[in-house]
Amino acid sequence: MSAEAQVNKVQGGNMVSQEESTSAVVRCLEIANLIKSHEKYNSKYIGAFPSERDLADPGAHLPVIAEELEKIAEKLQSGQIKPNYLGVSTEATDLIALSEIIISEISELQFEFPELNIIPRITASQKSISGYTFLNHAREASLPHTYSFIELPDQKRILQQFSAPFYIRLALEDKFRNMVGFKFLKTTRGSRSQTDESFPMSLFIKFLMKKGSIFFALNISLEDVKNIYSWSCKFVHTGQKEYRWLILKALDVVAHLFVNHQGMGGRVQTLKPGMTLDKLQAALNDFTKADKKRNVPGRHWELSDEIYDIKHYIYDSRKYFMGPPRR
Fold it and tell me: What's the pTM?
């Protein structure tokens, strides 16, 4: 196959017409404007990821929906063949499909909260995955040939969609674990002590909120990190669907933590100049001691310079023809 034919295959395989793109942009902006004129729209919204308490009010969804629709419209209008979106060069077909999913899920939100009345349609959809379905997917991983005869209608696709917040949670935990070189947490009660290799994420987020700017140059809102982590844990406990606009909002924030992770195995530097792992460990332990509640075991952080973030190379067949993604 000639180089020109390969370029056409890569660039044209998922091409959409100008008419399709324009129609999607118009629809995105039309719905976004409808939302902005809604009585429950928060005009003071500045782009923060809503807290769990905020999300108890259906109106908290509206600014995020409008924001995500406007971002999609902006990318479709950018003039770039594959604009950078959520940290990756994105196909226009995905952007159009996402706009349709968001608009469809607005009708689902209205089923839950009819008083919103944004678009003239209310629909119901699957909101959770049963324990029996999870069990079958767990068995299928070990018994693939057996399950080639057993039908799980569309549940694999639904599981993939529903579990996105769980993947976000794992991404955050792994990022912070390696960012600090976490080895274990030693807990002591009286004369008895034990080590726990589970990363104390909630405690670390509290530390980040208080002391993080001293040690790390993180170009994201730590309040957003706290809210996203709390939100991302819900799927593990409920198995329930989260709206796509919240998933996109969370991905957009979390992707900024990984902007320097593309490469071939090099170490990702995270500490600010002048900061050391020993200083970080001392600060974590001082903070943890001060945060200790009554009747809670003493906790001591143990960090290691042998544990760190590594750059990863992920092959993208389009990059040979496209060059690096542009913002």
Answer: 0.88
